[in-house]
Amino acid sequence: MSPAPWHDRDPLSTGNVLSTVCTLLRTDGLDVSMTAIARACGTSRNFLYANWKTASALHLRALTIELAQAFDVAHRTHPVDGTVRGIVEHLTQVVRVVRRHPVTAAVARTSPTALVRAHTATDGPLVRVVTERVSDLLHPLAPHGGVWSDAALHSRPWKILWIARPAALCPEAVGDQEWEDTLDGAFAELLRDLLAPWAPPG
Asked: What distance, in Å, lies between the first and last C-alpha atoms of the chain?
């Protein structure tokens, strides 16, 4: 008899564990411990430590997933058409999704210093994930080579991240429509200014 497939031998697949961590982060923020994750998954801490080493490593993977989902949500509601206008609308929606996300609120509540650091981080896995995503969105603006072919465009993903974070990492504005509109409007205006050289005349 041939051995069972890996996923049959290991019911606690990576996807299952990370889905559990995402769920826990939505209520407990970065306070989620290996003990809590193990309990929610029905496994032992030793199993988790053997595969993911630290709770922080699991937090980071889960946050990366949540960020990717924010871009996916924005793509469904404000799909990018390769124009400056489409990019502005899409990224403004991403900002709104992140601001309103339960993980953003939970991190602000449980780990305020971590949220403050996120506002000004200049490097790290999450910064790289966002800048790569934004670079992909900007790629059609330089049809012959993308962002790498245009030094000015290549600098824009980082600048966009810098103006996006104050608008996105502000969960206290959620529920105050005027405040949210102001944040979204300011971000969109600054983004249009950054991308003006690649907008069609008119």
From this structure: 70
- The model carries a pTM of 0.89
Distance separating alpha carbons of residues 40 and 17, to the nearest angstrom: 9
CA distance 188 to 185: 5
Tokens found for residue 160: 């966009």
> What was the pLDDT predicted at 84?
96
What is the chain written as a DSSP string? -PPPPHHHH-SS-HHHHHHHHHHHHHHHGGG--HHHHHHHHTS-HHHHHHHHSSHHHHHHHHHHHHHHHHHHHHHHHS---SSHHHHHHHHHHHHHHHHH-HHHHHHHHH-HHHHHHHHH--SSHHHHHHHHHHHHHHGGGSTTTGGGG-HHHHTHHHHHHHHHHHHHS-GGGTT-HHHHHHHHHHHHHHHHHHHGGGSPP-
pLDDT-based confidence at 7, cuts 50/70/90? Answer: very low
Amino acid at 112: P
